[in-house]
Amino acid sequence: MKMLLTLLTGTLLLATSAHAAKESVVTINGPQSGQQIRSENVQTLAQLVTSPEVSANAWWPGTIITTPAESQKAKAQQQQVLRQLSVWEQQAKAPLAATLRSVQAQLASITVAGRLRVNLDPDVVRTQPDADVRLQGEYQLYLTTRPDTVTLLGAIDSPGEQRWRPATSVSDYFNGHVFLAGADTSHVTVISPSGEPDVAPIAQWNDLHREAEPGSVIWVGFAEDEQGLNEQIIRLLAQREAKQ
């Protein structure tokens, strides 16, 4: 499931030193297996996202571009969150400890890629001058096809994927599910495929019709969260690499 693209320019970030002219490599992880493409002289983001080998395989809301440094940072954040959950679990009483073990297992199983906050939609990149940045450095580009699921994670029994249903309220995805000890049963956070979080009320007393895009993660957080773990986990899930 790997495609390899070599660029002979430098970094998507704002580095402008003379040393940035060194050859750089973008590794493209795509939805189709067995494809390896090497391309030279791609100097801008517009050239990358409009290239046939990329645009033919991209579902832009779920596409991620990152650097090795950002990926390492995301992985370090993941390990930090897991350590904090472990410490909390050791101090907690049952059944909250069981909830924390479940959440640890869920977060340990995801792959985080890191995410550079740039718009990859070719229409935006082509038409907005500020969006077409020069490519300088080493990157990974993660492509995915449009999924037909949403993923429930957090303090809930049976976390995992559910079939996405159009015109369905977020709260309806919890029908038949049980919230675990310590869960926030009034609000959840919907993380879109592009990594944008949105709080959705789901209790009977505050329920509003909010829909989730296909490919979204619906996070059931903790009602009591003195350590700010909910916010850390939401940032982590925004950098989650989509499963193929």
Salient structural properties:
alpha+beta; five-stranded mixed beta sheet; 25% helix; disordered N terminus
Characterization of this structure:
- The protein is built from 6 helices and 9 strands; from the N terminus they run ββααβαααββββββα.
- It is globular and about 60 Å long.
- It has 2 domains: 2-67 and 116-142, Ubiquitin-like (UB roll) (Roll), CATH 3.10.20.700; 73-112 and 147-237, Outer membrane lipoprotein wza fold like.
- It has a 5-stranded mixed sheet with strand order 6-5-9-7-8. A 4-stranded mixed sheet has the order 1-2-4-3.
- The protein is α+β, with helices and mostly antiparallel strands.
- The longest helix is centred in the N-terminal third of the chain and has 24 residues, at 68-91.
- A hairpin with a 5-residue loop joins strand 5 (149-154) and strand 6.
- It starts with a strand and ends in a 7-residue tail after the last helix.
- Helix 3 (68-91) packs antiparallel against helix 4 (96-108) and helix 3 runs antiparallel to helix 6.
- 25% of the residues lie in helices and 18% in strands.
- The protein has helices at residues 45-50, 52-55, 68-91, 96-108, 122-127, 229-237, and strands at residues 2-7, 24-29, 64-66, 139-142, 149-154, 160-163, 187-191, 197-201, 217-220.
